[in-house]
Design a protein that fits this description.
Elements: H1 3-22, H2 42-51, H3 56-68, H4 70-86, E1 109-111, E2 118-119, E3 125-127, H5 131-143, E4 149-152, H6 157-171, H7 173-179, E5 193-196, H8 207-215, E6 221-223, H9 230-233, E7 241-244, H10 247-256, H11 261-273
Parallel strand pairs: 2-4
Antiparallel strand pairs: 1-3, 4-5, 5-7, 6-7
The protein binds zinc ion.
């Protein structure tokens, strides 16, 4: 960790102590002594501690939203974790620092050919665990006059190896790393990610892209690489790439982490590691 990182971590810790202190009954004003505040919920303290790894403005916004109604946050978190655990973890962090093992392959992959979904090819598959949500979102889009066309879904470790190599050959390593994942570092290996057609920035201004941006969260899907966050996510804006993170998880991302999936999943990883 460089000096700047160390300073930032120090500031985050200082901020955390301040935040915890604000929730602590022993520091309450004397006039409230007759009706002491309840002891701070250990889960609130744990959540604030986990969030302290994030940038200060994100921590402050998170604290504000959390303290407004801690019960709501933990209800959503419990719901997300319950669904996630039942499916073998739908919420694990997969990025340039947290790779999946080469052996990771979901056991419940199903072919999209078995469903009435618009698609660009016949080799697409997703996890059965998320198909109810996929179909629900597709039906809702159709009801709004929108056709979602599935263009890329599960990618094996081996496919990813070849794909990254291809992009390095054609664009060079530095450029390839901005939009293509090394094997094991792609969310597509999870089997819970969809790239919608067209896989171009223009999708953002097309009806299907606009619909997804406004509505995908209602069905548990989240745009993994939003605009202006390459320094956070490691990737350029990908308005076609959506990951299923459960409906409760998508609400948490939206209401507590400014709609940034990376922050939510980094928080959750830290929260799970907390004791
Ligand atoms: Zn993608």
């Amino acid at each position: 960790m460089d000096d700047a990182g160390g300073y930032s971590a120090f500031m985050n810790r200082s901020l955390l102590f301040t935040l915890v202190c604000m929730a602590c009954s022993s520091c309450a004003p004397a006039q409230q002594a007759e009706a002491p505040e309840p002891e701070p919920d250990s889960r609130v303290v744990k959540a604030l501690e986990a969030a302290s790894i994030l940038p200060d403005p994100v921590v402050l916004a998170f604290r504000s939203a959390l303290m407004a109604d801690p019960g709501r946050f933990f209800r959503l978190l419990d719901e997300a974790e319950l669904e996630s655990a039942a499916a073998g973890d739908l919420l694990q962090l997969v990025d340039k620092n947290h790779a999946l093992p080469s052996s990771y392959k979901p056991l419940d992959l199903v072919s999209l050919n078995d469903y009435k979904l618009a698609r660009t090819k016949d080799t697409l598959s997703l996890r059965r665990a998320i198909m109810d949500s996929v179909l629900e979102m597709d039906a809702a889009a159709r009801a709004d006059g929108i056709t979602l066309t599935f263009a890329s879904t599960f990618r094996s470790y081996e496919t990813q190896l070849g794909l990254f190599d291809y992009w390095v050959q054609s664009h060079g390593l530095k450029e390839a790393e901005r939009f293509s994942a090394r094997a094991g570092q792609s969310q597509h290996q999870l089997g819970t990610v969809v790239d919608f057609h067209p896989i171009e920035e223009e999708i953002a201004s097309l009806p299907q892209g606009l619909w997804l941006e406004q509505n995908a969260w209602r069905y548990g899907f989240s745009m993994s690489y939003p605009p202006g966050h390459e320094h956070i996510t490691g990737y350029l804006w990908e308005p076609w790439h959506f990951r299923y993170i459960t409906k409760a998880g998508a609400s948490i991302e939206r209401d507590y982490f400014g709609g940034i999936q990376q922050y939510f999943l980094e928080f959750l990883r830290e929260y799970r590691l907390g004791t």
